[in-house]
Design a protein that fits this description.
2 domains; single chain; Porin; 53% strand; 3 helices; Immunoglobulin-like
Length: 664
């Protein structure tokens, strides 16, 4: 373990550097304020800033590079007004090289890596907490995306209907937005209130994210700007009840014909609370994430894609990915006949999430989460889960957790009890983190009893106790060939609860992103696990990292796991052809105790922002599945899908399905 001792010495040196690093204090551009101004005449949302009303709007100007604290060379002005129905925002994005403006995505709801975009960030609760901050993003083509605080399902009416328009001008581009109040959750108030707000511009040519109110490289929400004196509309201005229903006739080999239907209701009794009722939801036609085949000693986490669980997902987040695990893992609930959930903010500090699903007498599951927040300083949570049914053992779990920041230090802890049937145990942990711009370092101690059981969760290992230490350095560099540097060190030392050895090791990684848009990464791990030894090396290389339309990457891992040789190759490429056809191919090859191969081909032809023809083929360990789908979706009103095959089957299934979705 000589290399491990060297790594420990390096890690200790890093800690010493951390301890003497000066705190980068918030500068003069943090916590900026802008007054709330009402307008009697709303602007026309056409992307042109020639409406007379914009001359009365307060202006947010002098955008800042958070890594240097200096104003941007190509500046931006943002304007904001409001009335009792909506918020109106405009951006003027100056660009000294307007021909270099980058805009590619045309489908609403897309991400925009490597593109020119503007973003409005707003927290009506003034909680200084990222969990309550909604973001409205527009690229230089006028394509919209939004991240509503708490999470929303994919249907446009439920995500929120808002407007945006873009115009190119000789020295850049301009944007106008109209965001109805009913899209947001906001507090009841008898008088004017302050809100957290920020304006952000992602500049593709320089690959720098500029902010009006400087939140530093730590992205601290308490440094956001302040929108002062907003008079909120009454709840009666909102549309309280929304409905979405689907009808799916399908034909399946051997099973024959079948017609399925379901209904979702979304009700907001107040601007703070939302309730969702789902009857016979359609999970068959929702493309699930494909689980990878990379080496893992525990069950792998798979991202959730089902709308019922995506709605309000933040209010049910009982996650600790680097510690005990996930106490609630929605993939454990495969299907249900009826589901109901209520979530929202009771006030600026207190939030609640309640969820129950029912599948007759076979399965009944419930989750409750109550959180008290003190903004970015931290907060406390109380939660409980239970499961009953003939197909699952009786399960109960409950716990408390909390964390609090003091300056650059954050302390936290957790206590959980979980049982199935007659077997039950506790899990506890304690954390101490040091957080400053560019640096993060965290020390954790934990213990999980051998009989700890959580059938609704994803718990990676039980019967272990010990400590771990994780340190990360991340920095963006503004000059020279290197654009970004990241380095991680992860140490852990665990035993079984009786004191016998379990796992000990160190993992070091280093990565650089070049200004030429290449990315290089190196990894090395030395460890022991249950008496066996690991010594693994890894290298990865990616090209065009900021452009998903012509991106490629390859990674290679080699060495020993559990005293056996291991080889893993992962590669991928995406490319857009003819301006409409997106092709992606990903492969994974694992050579270990058992050999595995996985290849995924995706093809999509975008007719326009709402209509597309797509296909996915998955070949894994000799099994082949593919499906073909046409969609006309993403707008308001009716969505239509035509599907050949089963998106989530292991092998190709002779199946044809037609699906209509109506929302109102």
């Amino acid at each position: 373990m000589g290399q491990m001792r060297v790594a420990v010495a390096v890690a200790i040196t890093v800690v010493l550097v951390l301890c003497v690093q000066l705190l980068l204090m918030a500068g003069q551009y943090s916590n900026r304020s802008i007054p709330a101004v009402k307008t009697a005449i709303p602007p026309v949302i056409d992307g042109r800033l020639d409406d007379e009303v914009w001359k009365t709007a307060p202006v947010a100007k002098e955008f800042i590079d958070p890594y240097t604290g200096k104003p941007a060379q190509d500046q931006t002005e943002a304007y904001i007004l409001y009335d009792q129905t909506a918020i109106y925002v405009a951006f003027y994005c100056h660009d000294s090289q307007p021909d270099a403006i980058v805009a590619r995505e045309i489908r609403p709801g897309s991400d925009f890596p490597g593109e020119d975009t503007v973003t409005l960030q707003i927290d009506p609760y003034f909680s200084r907490n990222w969990a309550n901050i909604s973001a409205f993003i527009v690229n230089a083509l006028g394509t919209q995306n939004e991240r509503i605080a708490g999470g929303r399902a994919a249907k446009r009416e439920w995500r929120g209907i808002w407007q945006a328009a873009v115009q190119r001008v000789p020295d850049g581009w301009t944007v106008e937005m109209r965001i109805p109040w009913e899209v947001l959750n906001y507090p009841n108030a008898n008088g004017p209130v302050n809100m957290s707000i920020n304006f952000k511009r992602d500049h593709a040519r320089t690959r720098i994210d500029y902010f009006w109110s400087d939140v530093t490289p730590m992205r601290r929400p308490e440094l956001m700007g302040i929108w002062q004196g907003v008079e909120l509309p009454k709840a009666s201005n909102r549309k309280n009840l929304q409905m979405m229903t689907y009808l799916t006739p399908e034909w399946r080999e051997q099973a024959g014909q079948e017609i399925r239907a379901g209904l979702d209701l979304r009700y907001s009794p107040t601007p703070q609370l939302t309730g969702v009722l789902s009857l016979f939801p359609d999970f068959r036609n929702i493309e699930a994430s494909v689980e990878g085949i990379e080496f893992s000693r525990s069950e792998r986490f798979v991202e959730e894609t089902r709308p019922f669980f995506m709605e309000g997902i933040r209010y049910f987040d009982l996650t600790e990915p680097y510690g005990i695990g996930r106490l609630f893992y929605s993939q454990r609930i495969e299907e249900f006949d009826a589901g109901i959930k209520v979530f929202g903010n009771l006030n600026s500090s207190l939030s609640v999430g309640l969820l129950s699903t029912f599948r007759g007498s076979r399965d009944r599951a419930s989750v409750a989460h109550l959180r008290y927040s003190v903004g970015e300083r931290g907060g406390w949570s109380v939660y409980g889960l239970l499961r009953r049914g003939s197909e699952y053992p009786q399960h109960d779990a409950y716990g408390v957790s909390g964390n609090l920041r003091f300056g650059n230090f954050r302390v936290g802890g957790k206590w959980i009890y979980a049982r199935e049937g007659d077997m039950g145990g506790t899990a506890v942990d304690a954390t101490l983190n040091y957080e400053v711009p560019r640096w993060f370092s965290g020390l954790r101690w934990m213990r999980i009893d051998p009989d700890f059981r959580a059938s609704l969760g994803l718990i990676y290992f039980t019967d272990r106790q010990g400590w771990s230490w994780f340190t990360r350095y991340n920095n963006e560099i503004r000059q020279g060939p290197v654009r970004e540097v990241e380095a991680d060190v992860f140490l852990r030392d665990y035993t079984h609860c009786d004191g016998s050895p379990f796992e000990k090791g160190v993992q070091v990684s280093f990565g650089v992103t070049l200004r030429s848009d290449y990315q290089i990464g190196l990894e090395h791990e030395v460890a022991t696990f249950e008496g066996t030894h690991d010594r693994v090396y890894g290298i990865r290389l990616r090209g065009n990292v900021s452009n998903r339309f012509k991106q490629w990457g390859i990674g290679y891992e080699f060495g020993q796991r559990s005293d056996q040789d291991i080889r893993f190759i992962g590669f991928g490429i995406t490319h857009r052809l003819f301006g409409k056809l997106d092709v992606g191919f990903n492969g994974s090859i694992l050579r270990f105790d058992e050999n595995h191969d996985q290849y995924i081909l995706t093809v999509s032809w975008e007719f326009d922002e709402l209509r597309a023809l797509s296909a996915r083929l998955v070949h894994q360990d000799g099994n082949l599945n593919w499906y073909l789908a046409y969609r006309s979706a993403g707008g308001v009103g009716q969505d239509l899908y035509f599907i050949v095959g089963d998106p989530n089957a292991e092998r190709f299934t002779q199946r044809i399905a037609l699906k209509w979705v109506w929302a109102m």
